[in-house]
Design goal:
3-stranded mixed beta sheet; 12 strands; disordered N terminus; 3 domains; about 25% strand; about 40% helix; alpha/beta; Ubiquitin-like (UB roll)
Length: about 240
């Protein structure tokens, strides 16, 4: 019986030893996981020597690199989440992804807010996005061929954004847009198109189809009114 109890005690000690070894291995792995970037950040080989930026059309590269907030001896193993947050906080940036390419390159992919209109601001013009927010892009530098909105109006900007998405050819012909009470009027080729504030893709396509049909017939109209469900009202020129 004494020998039996001794045998059980040896087995328990072996299991305990294996458990401690496994726990020690896990602790070492966790320590290595957290310590490796710390060590690598201090190696000259991984210093940031190049920044590659894709997706920008309106922002200047210097604005992107400034928003990264890189230190003089920044490493590709620095916190990329923090760098991405700094970029996403930049006005005019919808999304930003930062990744590393060893040994010393940061790759940045930017999605900018898309301008849909120009609007007066003081003595100059500014760019608006689809929400009517003013974008920090320089119209003189980018020179977009966009409709001119009477003001920085969110409803006008939203309707223009929908026209841009669902009828890009029509959008390219629009010269101006303004709010009339709760509705939006866009002007092109001396004519007016009326839309409700919640104009749908179907509304926009219906107005576009009528405009194209009248153009094929050579018939001159003054206004197309797409504010009514299931129909487009034609008001003839001079009437």
């Amino acid at each position: 019986m004494a020998e039996r109890r001794l045998s059980l005690g040896s087995a328990q000690r072996s299991r305990l030893r294996y458990a401690w070894q496994a726990l020690g291995g896990l602790a070492a792995a966790v320590l290595l996981w957290y310590a490796t970037p710390w060590v690598l950040r201090r190696l000259e080989f991984f210093r940031v020597r190049r920044v590659e930026i894709a997706g920008i059309q309106y922002l200047a590269p210097a604005q992107i690199t400034a928003a990264l907030g890189l230190a003089d001896r920044a490493s590709v193993f620095d916190d990329l989440l923090a760098a991405g947050s700094g970029l996403r906080a930049l006005p005019g940036v919808r999304s930003a992804v930062v990744s590393r390419r060893l040994p010393g390159t940061l790759e940045i992919v930017i999605e900018e807010a898309v301008p849909v209109a120009l609007a007066p601001r003081g003595v100059s013009l500014t760019l608006l996005d689809s929400s009517g927010s003013v974008l920090p892009f320089n119209p003189a530098a980018t020179a977009p061929d966009l409709p001119i909105a009477a003001s920085a109006d969110s409803t006008v900007a939203q309707v223009l954004a929908r026209i841009r998405a669902h009828a890009p050819v029509l959008f390219g012909r629009i010269e101006a847009a303004r709010r009339v009470k709760g509705d939006v009027v866009v002007e092109l080729d001396g004519r007016r198109l009326w839309f409700g504030p919640a104009a749908t893709a179907e509304d926009i396509r219906a107005v576009t189809a009528v405009a194209e049909d009248l153009a094929r017939q050579g018939r001159n109209y003054g206004e197309l009114d797409g504010r009514f469900a299931g129909q487009v009202v034609v008001r003839w020129a001079g009437v």
